[in-house]
Design a protein that fits this description.
Distance between the termini: 34 Å
Mean pLDDT: 87
Order of helices and strands: HHHHHHHHHHHHH
Structural class: mainly alpha
Strand content: under 5%
Number of strands: 0
Oligomer: single chain
């Protein structure tokens, strides 16, 4: 029996490791997209994700959980695989190709707001006035980032890139609402989603003529994204949640990720960080923090927010 304090320390270590890896992926996206197209990056990263999740299943002796599901279980995995990785990452990688990482990353971070809004019709949740205020605060942050501080001009620096980044957050929220209704083992579900998604991505890449053997730099970038964005980092996060006394004790650490990401984008990807990116991110995170604090009074929404960290 592991002492409670030791369990919580391990939970923090797992959570902080996951947060660190998620902080690196915006830089990894930008560096990889200098070598390959968004579709090619999606192809290589989805293959790496499925491979690493299968290795985890083997190590955890859970491979048997892949068999014995119902037809509806496998249909759900296929449907969720269409949402993630195919649709979600196709939109996200194209957004990163069009926008600076410092803008694409916080715009995608609005998934928590999309989740709160979609929970009203799909999960029959009620939204409070304070949650609406939180959404307005975060949307103000979106406008600051999208206009680079010229909010009242309403002239977006790249309307398509902004639309793709925000749209990806809606797809992510839909994916996790569908995922939370599936009671199968989390790692087994993630593998099946990734495997189905890889099949769909492969078909898509062939149909548009993007199937090609990449340069080693592009392949390495895809492998990193697949392992540390789509794959093993979720396992670390789930382990942290399982060990922690409460989900709130580790889930709040995810707020570190977007700010660490800005630092890495500057020092690793070479981006000059705009003041508007920092200001907008602060507003987005503030809105999400307020919304989370309100949502903790509803167990269903709290669990959903805790288990679905952003990119």
């Amino acid at each position: 029996m592991i002492p409670a304090m030791q369990r919580q320390t391990r939970a923090y270590l797992y959570a902080l490791t996951a947060v660190f890896f998620w902080s690196t992926v915006a830089s990894a996206f930008k560096l990889a997209l200098r070598q390959v197209s968004p579709v090619a990056l999606l192809l290589y990263s989805s293959a790496a994700s499925a491979a690493i999740l299968f290795v985890v299943l083997v190590l955890q002796r859970k491979v048997h959980m892949l068999a014995g599901g119902s037809a509806s279980d496998y249909a759900r995995s296929a449907l969720l695989g269409l949402l993630n990785p195919l649709l979600y990452y196709a939109m996200l990688f194209h957004a990163y190709a069009l926008l600076p990482g410092q803008e694409a990353q916080p715009l995608n971070y609005t998934w928590a707001l999309a989740l709160a809004l979609l929970s009203i019709p799909l999960l029959k949740q009620r939204i409070r006035l304070v949650s609406l205020l939180a959404i307005v605060i975060s949307l103000a942050g979106v406008c600051v980032i999208a206009t680079r501080g010229r909010m009242f001009s309403l002239r977006f620096t790249d309307p398509l890139g902004v639309s793709l980044a925000l749209g990806s957050s809606v797809v992510w929220a839909l994916f996790w609402i569908g995922n939370m209704k599936d009671r199968r083992d989390e790692v087994a579900k993630l593998f099946l989603n990734s495997a189905c998604g890889f099949v769909f991505v492969s078909i898509y890449a062939v149909c548009i003529g993007e199937w090609a053997w990449p340069a080693w730099a592009g392949l390495a970038g895809g492998a990193y994204v697949g392992v540390f964005e789509m794959g093993i980092t979720y396992v670390l996060w789930l382990k942290a949640l399982a060990l922690s006394r409460t989900t709130a004790q580790v889930s709040n650490l995810i707020f570190l990720a977007p700010f660490l990401s800005l630092v890495l984008l500057h020092h690793v990807a070479g981006e000059r960080i705009f003041p508007s990116s920092v200001a907008g991110l602060v507003l987005i995170v503030a809105g999400i923090a307020i919304q989370r604090a309100t949502a903790r009074q509803d167990r269903a929404v709290e669990a959903n927010l805790a288990e679905c960290p952003p990119d």
